[in-house]
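Fold description:
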Amino acid sequence: MSKSATLLLLVIIFTAGPACYDSAATDTATPPDQRSGRVGLQSKKEFFDLAGFVDQEIETLNLAKRTITKKVTIDGKSEEKKLDATDFTNDLDLFRKADINKPAWIEKYRIETVGNDTSYIATDSSLRTRHLQVLRNENNEVQRIEIKRRSGNVLSSGSQELSYHKDSGYRIYSRQIGDLVGDAEVSVEVKF
């Protein structure tokens, strides 16, 4: 791996931002406005509990010990491998870090719901997670998560697009623009 690709991966890891989540088990299948059942009371989580959902998926995937196909593309050059008994904790950490449940952020996301799909859109330009979309099936079960994040530090700026498809895989795309480290694109695609 080239020095710039290695540096890019380090930048991605260290600019993902701190994980702000409560690891307590919560109901992720029911939208927040339907959880308490009582008017005027707020549920424990104001928004979709992405961190809780990701933790459940990590546990399920790690117990299943599935063989996966992992394709990594760096600046157009790809490598694909089949892997056995992968630990999904590190791979799905970027999804967990996109969780928006933080008390200070309650008024900083606009919620849009169309049918079974809910979108959380940042109204504050300083927030890294710009858009979180939760797509559910007719039984109100989460089927797909789509996330758009901003990343960066003093050396570079960039964006990330994360897509998680329950029971089939996920994709992480990151684009970094930097004066010192140059521009780079990284894509990780996993199928299970």
Summary: Residues 64 and 171 are 20 Å apart (CA to CA). Residues 3-43 have pLDDT under 50 and may be disordered. Strands lie at 68-74, 77-83, 109-114, 117-122, 129-136, 142-152, 157-165, 169-177, 184-191. The helical segments are 3-15, 50-64, 88-91, 93-97.
